[in-house]
């Protein structure tokens, strides 16, 4: 499982969950209303829900090849959990989701985490497409994806129901990165450029 490794960047560490992460991540991200506005979940009401999420996505899943998993995004110096980066393998495709705490917005940290995670995900066997969706009003997420080199493929009408906006399904942009040389990927070569 070449993709499930600890990743270090200049300011961040993307890693497996550790004891004590739940309460800090709850305070910084999962329990904060503004951080869940464009998610398919409400803010966590208690730290137990965050602990269960970490156990499932950021710990247990690291043992299961091909299972969806997540990195905890932590500051490198203080090792403070500030967000998550989720990867959902789907055959030759990998769907991603990510988020960091509001207190850390505007510093380029989501882009920094994204570069590290995407580089690792390209090492997944057979990976040819990394993709995600974001609400058409989620300007911050769209900017992050564009800085990561994702291409906007179009609009998915009535795609997601987001609790913060009620029961009506909302339009989303679909973004992707695809391997430039998919034939070489399937043959096991490592292309040096992606688009």
What does this structure look like?
With 195 residues, the chain is an alpha+beta fold. It has a single domain (7-186), classed as Gcn5-related N-acetyltransferase (GNAT) (Aminopeptidase, 3-Layer(aba) Sandwich). 25% of the residues lie in helices and 29% in strands. It contains five helices and eight strands. The protein has helices spanning 21-30, 47-57, 109-121, 139-147, 182-186; strands at 7-8, 12-15, 69-75, 81-90, 93-100, 129-135, 151-160, 170-178. It has an eight-stranded mixed beta sheet with strand order 1-2-3-4-5-6-8-7, sandwiched between helices. Strand 4 (81-90) and strand 5 (93-100) form a beta hairpin. Helix 1 (21-30) crosses helix 2. The radius of gyration is 16 Å and the shape is globular. The two termini are 24 Å apart. Mean pLDDT is 88; it is low at 181-195.
Quick check: average pLDDT?
88
CATH H-level superfamily title: Gcn5-related N-acetyltransferase (GNAT)
**Mind telling me the C-alpha Rg?**
16 Å
Number of helices: 5
Any guess at the CATH architecture?
3-Layer(aba) Sandwich
Low-confidence stretches: 181-195
Computed structural class: alpha+beta
Helix-residue proportion? 10-25%
Task: Tell me how many strands there are.
Answer: 8
The structural domain count equals 1
- SSE string: EEHHEEEHEHEEH
What is the molecular shape? Answer: globular
CATH C-level category: Alpha Beta
This entry's quaternary arrangement is: single chain
């Amino acid at each position: 499982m070449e993709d499930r490794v600890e990743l270090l960047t200049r300011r961040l560490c993307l890693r497996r969950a550790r004891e004590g992460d739940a309460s800090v991540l709850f305070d910084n991200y999962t329990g904060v209303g503004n951080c869940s506005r464009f998610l398919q979940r409400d803010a966590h009401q208690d730290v137990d829900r965050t602990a269960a999420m970490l156990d499932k996505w950021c710990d247990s899943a690291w043992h299961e090849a091909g299972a969806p998993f997540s990195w905890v995004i932590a500051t490198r110096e203080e090792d403070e959990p500030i967000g998550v980066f989720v990867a959902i393998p789907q055959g030759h495709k990998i769907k991603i989701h990510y988020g960091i705490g509001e207190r850390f917005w505007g510093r380029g940290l989501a882009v920094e985490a994204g570069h590290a995670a995407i580089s690792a995900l390209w090492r997944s066997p057979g990976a040819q497409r990394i993709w995600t969706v974001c609400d058409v009003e989620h300007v911050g997420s769209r900017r992050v994806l564009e800085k990561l080199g994702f291409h906007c493929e179009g609009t998915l009408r009535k795609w997601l129901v987001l609790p913060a906006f009620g029961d009506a399904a909302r339009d989303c942009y679909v973004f992707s990165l695809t391997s430039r040389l998919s034939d070489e990927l399937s043959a096991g070569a490592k292309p040096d450029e992606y688009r």
